[in-house]
Amino acid sequence: MLLSLLFPSRCAACGADGVRACAKCLSAFGPPFPVPGHGPPMFALANYTGAARQLVLAFKERGRRDLAAVFGGLLTAALPRLPGARWDGAGRCWLVPAPSRRAAARRRGGSHVLGAARASGLAVADALRLAPGVRDSVGLDGATRRANLAGRVLLSRRGLPPPGSAVVLLDDVVTTGATAAECASVLKGAGFRVTAILAFTSARISSPHG
């Protein structure tokens, strides 16, 4: 309480006082909209521009781990409206977060995508990891990203959902779609049905929210 009085929260996008993310900046996110791609249907909640981009960067790279609850809330609202989301007999819709490189996760204080998934209150399966040797994907084109990931997305056996489950793959930003495609392929090969891919933002040219 004392810390919150001395250092009040500020919107991670615009700096407005008293909130982690103000209503105006959060309005950049909306219902899931389709993103062009190959493989399972892909959706995003915002384009990777403006306030949405600033919130993702703050959460991912600028130490605003308090935004896990904000992004978790976006997931909670989005899943019932996501085409392809499937609930199992126990009422669970399984989220599988896309993995981060170990060095990046350590620098960020853990996987931000996993943190948001867990904050959503939905069923989460931490089922994927990256093998050593995966390069940072920033600046890589689609072909290089695919080569960078080929054979390096691995199953984490202790984090798998029940056998044969339908899952939604979760990521922060869709750029070329290489990460999502490789993750979906690995999950499919293990007998899981990736019924949709959901990203908080898309760096592709898309038309959100109608």
Automatic annotation (TrEMBL):
PANTHER family to which the protein is assigned, alphabetical: DNA UTILIZATION PROTEIN YHGH
UniProt similarity note: Belongs to the ComF/GntX family.
Name of this chain's protein: Amidophosphoribosyltransferase
Organism: Saccharothrix coeruleofusca
